[in-house]
Amino acid sequence: MTSYTCKQCDTTTSISSSVTMESFCCPSCKALYVKDAGEFRFKSKFSYSLLDTSIAIGKKCQIGNETYEVIGMLVKHLGDFVYAREYTLQSNLGNYKYLSECEGHWILLKEIDDIDFNSKSRLEITYNDRVFKKYDYYNNDIVLAQGFFDINLEEKSAFVVEYISPPFILSSENLNELHFYLGEHISKKEVKKMFNLEALPYKSGVGILQPFPFHILDTIKIFLITAILILTCFIFQGSQENKEVVNNTISINEYVNKDYVSQSFEVVDVAVPIKITLSSEVSNSWAYAGVSVVNEVTNEEEFAEQDIEFYSGYEDGYHWTEGSQSANFHICGLKPGKYHLVISPSAENITPNSNDLSSIKNLPPEIATTGDKITDSINKLYSGMYETEQSISSDQKNLTISAELESPSNWNFGISLVVLIALTILLFIYRHFFETWRWSDSSYSPYLE
Fold this sequence. Notes:
The radius of gyration is 43 Å and the shape is elongated. Helix 2 runs antiparallel to helix 4. It has 449 residues and is α+β, with helices and mostly antiparallel strands. The protein is 18% helix and 45% strand. The protein is built from 4 helices and 25 strands. Strands 7-8-9-10-15-14-13-12 form an 8-stranded antiparallel beta barrel. Strands 17, 18, 20, 21, 22 and 24 form a 6-stranded antiparallel β-sheet that branches. Strands 16-25-19-23 form a 4-stranded antiparallel β-sheet, with no helix packed on it.
């Protein structure tokens, strides 16, 4: 266990780790103490204040098989208005890791000693079979410290060189002495889980090591497999031809009070659309049909309505027309099975054809059907007059019904392929902008401004 009581504010800070302490900064009053001749002497106070949440000194987390504790935190000014926070973590086995956060992006680093940064002009370094490209070099200034440190913080400026190969980074830092680090991107979600935290600094822009959201090669493989499947379906379905299954003409007068039921037809192999065409020689009038496609096995039905209207005339010496004497529509996705059509027709000025006295309505009340022969003769005479009147005033109209099973639309396949190609192009465009943004603050950006 390590603890220290600040002489400026009498606040005691303690951690469970044992630290060879060279510097201490009070988290409460920002007072900095540096070991001098075996004693800790007050040197100065930091003026910088944190604007958002940080991970508290003494907070613990699990990394691999070791338990790490936050023993110190540094805030470094990287230039302009950019600041980074670096947490020093010490494990129960005495190992160190460093957790760095800049603009909400996190990097977990460890110190290494098997790399050579001697050539400052080198633009690439190969380490562990990965090629790292030079990103930048700069001086950072320590503007705030908290906790315990095994280095002398009296010197507050360090020179840093960085090479990146996302999601990895190689960096060197010269603060009193030269140190080398290997770091890897770690997500904000993982950091929250590690320390059991609710809030962390807001993420802004593209991080220096932030992975591209999509794995380009795997995504292209998925697109290619999808395209092959689409083309396979296109080849098999494209060979099917349209097939007429219903073609009949009925009298609308005959089916005013009942439905017309077509002959049965069968759909095989795959789901297909059916095109239904209705036509009637209407003139300055309308006809209507309610159409149901009925599955004879499941009794499921798809229903649609269609109006047929045609009007014409002369106005100011010009002939005009409106509407059409035919109309068609589709019902899509008929699954394999046996079907028939049920048509409920109607039209303007239509009355039913009937020779049945039971269909006669509105007879005078004094005329009734009895066993009396005279009354029976009167009824027959009236009935004949009524039927004659109806047949004279009736507007006889026919309705032609045609139904055709079509091959599945090739538009779906074409559109799917176009979408896949467009998504692939957009993916590469997005990646270009993503990488351009990543390198926007670098002095060695491979992307032209």
